[in-house]
Structure formats: C-alpha cells, structure tokens
C-alpha cells in the first residue's frame, strides 16, 4: 500500500520554500539563464571564449566558470560580460 505524497498539488515555489532552498535554487536558476544567454549571444556574434576573456581582462578558465554558472558570480561581472557582447543586464524587484 502506497502512502500519499504530501507535496502532491503544491507549487514548486511552495515545495522549495518548505524545503528551505527556494532562494538558493532561484539564484542558481537565474545565473544559469544569464550564462545561457551570454553563450547564445557569443555564438550569434562569433565571439570566442578566448576573445571575450581577453576583453574582460580575465582568464579563459574564469570565463568558463561564468558560462557554466559555477561559483559565486558577482552582478558586476555579469554586467561587464553582457556589455562586452552588446547587451545589458537588468535586475528588477517585483
């Protein structure tokens, strides 16, 4: 006999809030989306990782961490990368 899942019918936000991981999960998801968008824009413009790293005055390994959304990436770093591919990073309080 199976037991009823207590989370059945709840939203993902409610589940993550109850689990205590909502904010961390949301921040990681945002980082991944921005990294994906940067990668797409680089591909669209034909910008290599080495070229963008050079423009950012950083190493290719550091740029790889940014594009893989690994570690604690600052908003300033994301803004700089976005500007170098001709885009703007926007943050909103909702």
Short description:
With 94 residues, the protein is an all-alpha fold. 62% of the residues lie in helices and 0% in strands.
User: What string, H for helix and E for strand, traces the elements in order?
Assistant: HHHHH
- How much is the radius of gyration in Å? 18 Å
β-strand amount: under 5%
| The CATH top-level class label | Mainly Alpha
Biggest β-sheet: count, sense, barrel?
none
Mean pLDDT: 90
Query: In the CATH hierarchy, what is the architecture at level 2?
Result: Orthogonal Bundle
- Strand elements, count: 0
Poorly predicted ranges (pLDDT <50, ≥5 residues)?
none
Domain count, please report it. 1
H/I helix tally: 5
Query: Helical percent range?
Result: 55-70%
Q: How is this fold's topology laid out?
A:
Blueprint: H1 12-19, H2 22-45, H3 49-56, H4 60-67, H5 75-84
Helix pairs in contact: 3-4
Describe the structure.
It is a single chain. This protein has a single domain (16-84), classed as 434 Repressor (Amino-terminal Domain). It is 62% helix and 0% strand. Helix 3 crosses helix 4 (60-67). It is mainly α. The longest helix is centred in the middle third of the chain and has 24 residues, at 22-45. The protein contains 5 helices and no strands.
């Amino acid at each position: 006999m199976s037991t009823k899942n207590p989370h059945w019918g709840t939203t993902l936000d409610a589940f993550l809030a109850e689990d205590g991981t909502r904010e961390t999960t949301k921040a990681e998801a945002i980082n991944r989306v921005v990294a994906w968008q940067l990668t797409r824009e680089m591909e669209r413009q034909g910008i290599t990782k080495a070229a963008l790293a050079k423009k950012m005055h950083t190493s290719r390994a550091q740029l790889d961490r940014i594009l893989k959304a690994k570690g604690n990436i600052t908003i300033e770093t994301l803004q700089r990368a976005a500007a170098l591919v001709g885009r703007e990073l926007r943050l909103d309080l909702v």
